[in-house]
Each structure stands twice: as C-alpha cells, then as structure tokens.
Amino acid sequence: MIKVEKLSHSFFVGKKNNRQEVSVLKDINLEVKEGEIVSIVGRSGSGKSTLLNLMSGYIKPTEGDIFIADERVTDYKESAWAEFRANHLGFIFQSFQLIPSMTAYQNIELPLVMKGVSEKEREKRVNEMLDKVGLKAFRDHYPSELSGGQQQRVSVARALIVQPPIILADEPTGSLDQETEKELLDFIQKLNKEENITFVIITHDEEVARIAERTIRLEDGRLAADREVAFR
Ligand SMILES: Nc1ncnc2c1ncn2[C@@H]1O[C@H](COP(=O)(O)OP(=O)(O)OP(=O)(O)O)[C@@H](O)[C@H]1O
Hints:
Layout: E1 2-13, E2 20-32, E3 37-41, H1 48-55, E4 63-68, E5 71-72, H2 78-88, E6 89-93, H3 104-115, H4 119-132, H5 148-160, E7 166-170, H6 178-195, E8 198-202, H7 206-211, E9 214-219, E10 222-228
Helix pairs in contact: 3-4, 3-5
Bound molecules: adenosine-5'-triphosphate.
Protein name: ATP-binding cassette domain-containing protein
Pfam family, one: ABC_tran
InterPro entries: AAA+_ATPase (IPR003593), ABC_transporter-like_ATP-bd (IPR003439), ABC_transporter-like_CS (IPR017871), ABC_transpr_LolD-like (IPR015854), MacB-like_ATP-bd (IPR017911), P-loop_NTPase (IPR027417)
C-alpha cells in the first residue's frame, strides 16, 4: 500500500551565506501492507513527522522514492498531490485541526465540498457519518462547544468521509484522556477490521503501539527496528 525506498531527507537551515544541511532521515526502506496498522515510534526529533510529511507530499524527499497505492508519487507536483490526497489519504492530528467557525457538520462536510460532491449526496453522507461516530446530537455544535474526545471524533469523521484507503495519524491520542483514548483506539481497530482501512500512526503512546501489528522505530533518522507485534 505504501512503499518507501532509500528515502533520505535533509533540511537546509541558516542564512544564505551560512547554509547548513541537517540530515533528518537516512536511507529509510519500509513497506506498509494493505489492511495493516503500523505505528511509528522514536524519540522527539528522530524524524517521525518528517516521514509522515513525506508520505503526505507536504515535503519532497532529498533522495529516494515513495509509492502509494501503486503510484510513484515522489515527483508529484502540488496539484497532483492535492488530488491524490483527496482520493487516497485521510489525516488525524493531535490538535484535531478543526475549523473553529464551522460546526461539526460543516467540518465533516468540507472534504466533500472540496471534491465537488452534490449537496444532496453530502447531506446523506455527513449524516451517516455523524451517526457512525456517535455525534448526531452534536451536529450543530462548534468545536469550542465539544469535548476533546468529541472534537477528535469530528476529525476522524472528516478523515473518513471521503472513504480513503489509508489514514495517516500524528499523535492522534496525544490530547485525550485514558477513557477517550481507548474509545478512539477501539474505533480505529473496528475501521481497520471492518473496512480494511490501513493506518500509519505516529505515537509516543504504548497503548497505540499495542493495537499496531507492526512497530517501526526511528532513531536519529534511521530505521532502528521494524517488527511485527505478536499479540493483538
Ligand atoms: N522545516 C524544518 N527545517 C529544519 N529542520 C527541521 C524542520 N522540520 C524538522 N526539522 C528537524 O528535523 C528533525 C526531525 O524532526 P521531526 O519533527 O520529524 O521529529 P519527530 O520525531 O516527529 O519529533 P517529535 O516527536 O518531537 O514530534 C528535528 O531535529 C527537527 O529540528
């Protein structure tokens, strides 16, 4: 589903006449198979977010190749990435990234508006989705009128509304209490089992790593371990 080959990435920092290359990812090779839940772990600064940003096309690799759903996306221009993301990828973030001036309904609807889906179809799909994530009664609430767990459910619903085969998540449970975290993890497992959605999840959290079939560990920009978790 996702294949990363000999991927390296450097950032250039400092002023023009004193530019320094900071090598952040070094020769990463990995594969995420369809229907897997893979967690990416590693210390702060080990390159986890950079890897996810490369897989999402927000930054371009210095070296190496990325294939997603059998497409070589490495050299995609921004417009091609935008279309590719809209069709293949859903995103969940620690900070939810909801639009504060939009209701739960409108936040979930937004990706469909961007895809040009008709209003009638949007209404049907958003209402089904609100039901699925248990937020029917909160459809007209603004993010500030929702709890952290409810906001994260809106963000999950927004990620799912375009039915992406892959969801990329950056510390999705980072802002949640234990109980809400468990709810989200159960939901992720349900989506994975019932809808075969592939998940790549950056986490510091042992509980998240526990639901993953595989854990990829980065150390100082290198792949330090890629192991299957026997229990699940
Ligand atoms: N835009 C950038 N310009 C320069 N350096 C960057 C940039 N983005 C990230 N870095 C550096 O790359 C390294 C890896 O950062 P990254 O955010 O990928 O780590 P991380 O493992 O996700 O960390 P955390 O767990 O703290 O989020 C860090 O040393 C960081 O300072």
